Amino acid sequence: MAGCYDMPMERAVFQLLKRTGAGFVDLLLPPRCPSCRTIVSEDGNFCVPCWSRLNFLTAPMCACCGLPFPYSTGDDTRCGACMETPPPFDHARAALAYNGPSAGLVLALKHGDRTGLARIMAGMMARAAAPMLADRPLLMPVPLHTRRLRLRRFNQAALLAHALARRTGLSVLTTALARVRDTPISRGMSRRQRAENVRGAIRVRAATHIKGAHVLLVDDVMTTGATAEACARALRRAGAARIDIVTFARVTHDTVEQG
């Protein structure tokens, strides 16, 4: 009979200790806005000014590349670029436009060693990619060249892919794609120059896992889409049945590249 009364008491003590411990941690290390580092109420929350400046990409948008439209023209409408030259992927979506706080988060993750941001960013990406996630795709990060990986010590796309996997239960394949050529940094290049920069730079290393698969490429930012398209072409040649792309942010017609 004693056990019948002990379990509720144990749970109550556990909850008390948990709340007390969390309060002590918050006192020493209070939760902060991921963008400006102002103290906020809960971990992962943005402060009101930063949240109001986040430009979420929602419909209406291009049915293929996800570029936002100023007004709705139908759910299946494609932008002029996708109609003129259909990309090698099926769909691309991004959580945010690349400007303001979103650019700051990308740069803090990539160059500021704030790897914990991947969890918050992946949450936003999961919402943007919800229709694509329903088919249980294989997550695949856009690769870094080994030299750049040694310098940075991590691939930010891989961090995002693993954070997305933890949220969704999907599988991640980090070694299927390889960047076999150390391409120059593409900042400031035109769309044509970016395409030439990555031509032949991406190769498939695990074709047996790709043939017939639905692949979801994961990256931090889409600028012109040149790198994503190079990855998609390599995957298409390896036999992928469907190729989608999700990024945390993307450059749109009314944003400028900041990093």
Automatic annotation (TrEMBL):
InterPro entries: ComF/GntX_DNA_util-trans (IPR051910), DZR_2 (IPR044005), PRTase-like (IPR029057), PRTase_dom (IPR000836). The keyword Disulfide bond does not apply. GO terms for molecular function: glycosyltransferase activity. Keywords: Glycosyltransferase, Transferase. CDD domains: PRTases_typeI. Residues 159-256 form the Phosphoribosyltransferase domain. Gene3D superfamilies: 3.40.50.2020. Residues 25-83 form the Double zinc ribbon domain. Pfam families: DZR_2, Pribosyltran. Belongs to the ComF/GntX family. This is ComF family protein. It comes from Sphingosinicella microcystinivorans.
